[in-house]
Amino acid sequence: ELNLDQLLHALDTEDCSDTPVLLQGETVAQPKAPLIEEISSTEAPEEPGTPVYEMRVVKDANEKALKIELRVELPEVSSVSECDLRISKDDLVIEVPAKYKLHLDLPELVDEDTTTAAFNKGKRLLCVTAPVAKPGP
């Protein structure tokens, strides 16, 4: 076995300064960090945008509301199956995951059972027609 002086002298003569020297009983500490480091993204997930829309209340000659017409432009939608449309008496929600979200409070109470919606593929336009609910007794 070589002692420390002999090992150091041997290294000087061989000019192997890059070579690690292990003494008896000494162990090499392994790095504690994993080989692959997980870095979280600094980009925030993109929020769905609000689509361009136009809402109008159609009234009769006596200025009584008959129906609400809503036209929503959805240029990134190619099929109505991508859309989720929910309507209640007083509000409407249109969602297209990762693309659009629109939540509107309706100016009049509507009859959600007779509300209709149609999607024009060519113009990528969703048209919703909601009849105004008749007042109860």
TrEMBL record:
InterPro entries: PIH1/Kintoun_subfamily, PIH1D1/2/3_CS-like. It comes from the Eukaryota. Pfam families: PIH1_CS. GO terms for cellular component: cytoplasm; R2TP complex; ribonucleoprotein complex. Residues 67-132 form the PIH1D1/2/3 CS-like domain. GO terms for biological process: box C/D snoRNP assembly; rRNA processing. PANTHER family: PIH1 DOMAIN-CONTAINING PROTEIN 1, PIH1 DOMAIN-CONTAINING PROTEIN 2. Belongs to the PIH1 family. This is PIHD2 protein.
